[in-house]
Automatic annotation (TrEMBL):
Top-level class of the enzyme under EC nomenclature: transferase
Subcellular localization(s) per the UniProt record: Cytoplasm
Domain Sulfotransferase: 46-299
Pfam families assigned to the protein according to its UniProt record, in alphabetical order: Sulfotransfer_1 (PF00685)
Primary subcellular site in the record, as a coarse category: cytoplasm
Protein name in UniProt: Sulfotransferase
Keywords for the protein's UniProt record, in alphabetical order: Cytoplasm, Transferase
GO MF entry, a single one: 3'-phosphoadenosine 5'-phosphosulfate binding
Biological processes, Gene Ontology terms: 3'-phosphoadenosine 5'-phosphosulfate metabolic process; xenobiotic metabolic process
Length: 307
């Protein structure tokens, strides 16, 4: 009997995990592919703000900073709802009833202006209306090695994503761009190029860790907000990793229960720069660096993998 139960649990585990399909050569989750036309035809408004990142590059952190700036540092207002309800995840779609069903499009469409949304889409997949309306976009990039490690652990704990396999297997997929939202290399380079033509504030996770005050001031300026020093200090404190890790409105402990298993790996895991050193073998690091140098040879974009 116990064995049957175990097999059933394993089966359920596999059943939830999404398969990948491709749109324009970019791997996306099957449910997203099923509504892609609606995503592509999404109607942005001129005062929309979009937070764009490759997955696990500091998205939730940036969302919390932006929300606190918008709410003038009012912590209670920032606790009005979970992150993914305050800032709809534009392309994410999971059919089914709440609490695990989710449509970022529906949430965004029903939201009064000014709206803030998030996306992990590469720049060429962003709905054209965002460019037509000249919307402001904040892009955050994180060094590839830490991004990979964080993404691997996220796949392990989030059953709505494909099974990552071993670290070695996931690294191969990551390097080949055969992961959800495609190639990290193309993603960071594509947005880097786009910033010269559009209203894009391009930030680095490592800079945000090193000097949160300076980077938060950049975000405030970009958003056209001028807040008192006291409010700024409050935002710095309340968006620190330690505080956010304990904030149920940002750490996903009360949402998607059954889909996200925090006992495997917490959603807010470490939030540091250089954690990749605990996971990469010497041989893997050498192989990764060689591949990285080839793929990043044609860009002025420079990352720091340690501070």
């Amino acid at each position: 009997m116990a064995l049957d139960k175990m097999e059933k649990l394993n089966l359920e585990d596999k059943m939830i995990r999404t398969e990948l399909c491709e749109v324009e050569g970019i791997p996306l989750a099957e449910p997203i592919c099923s509504i892609w036309n609606q995503v592509w035809n999404f109607k942005a408004r001129p005062d929309d703000l979009l937070i764009a990142t490759y997955a696990k590059a500091g998205t939730t952190w940036t969302q919390e900073i932006v929300d606190m700036i918008q709410q003038n540092g009012d912590i209670e207002k920032c606790k009005r709802a979970s992150t993914y309800r305050r800032h709809p995840f534009l392309e994410w779609y999971m059919p089914g009833p709440s609490p695990n069903g989710y449509s970022g499009l529906e949430l965004a469409e029903a939201m009064p202006s000014p709206r803030t949304m998030k996306t992990h889409l590469p720049v060429q997949m962003v709905p054209p209306s965002f460019w037509e309306q000249n919307c402001k976009i904040i892009y955050v990039a994180r060094n590839a090695k830490d991004n990979l490690v964080s993404y691997y652990h996220f796949h392990r704990m989030n059953k709505a994503l494909p099974d990552p396999g071993t670290m070695e297997e996931f690294m191969e997929k990551f390097m080949a761009g055969k992961v959800l939202w495609g190639s990290w290399y193309d993603h960071v380079k594509g947005w880097w190029k786009a910033k010269d033509k559009h209203r894009i504030l391009y930030l680095f996770y490592e800079d945000m860790k090193e000097n949160p005050k300076r980077e938060i001031q950049k975000i405030m300026k970009f958003m056209g907000k001028d807040l008192e020093q006291e409010v700024l200090n409050k935002i710095i404190h309340n968006t620190s990793f330690e505080i956010m890790k304990e904030n149920p409105m940002a750490n996903y402990t009360k949402d998607f229960v059954g889909l996200m298993d925090h006992s495997v790996s917490p959603f807010m895991r470490k939030g540091v720069v250089g954690d990749w050193k605990n996971y990469f073998t010497v041989a893997q690091n050498k192989k990764f660096d060689e591949d990285y140098n080839k793929k990043m040879a044609n860009t002025s974009l420079v990352f720091r993998a340690e501070l």
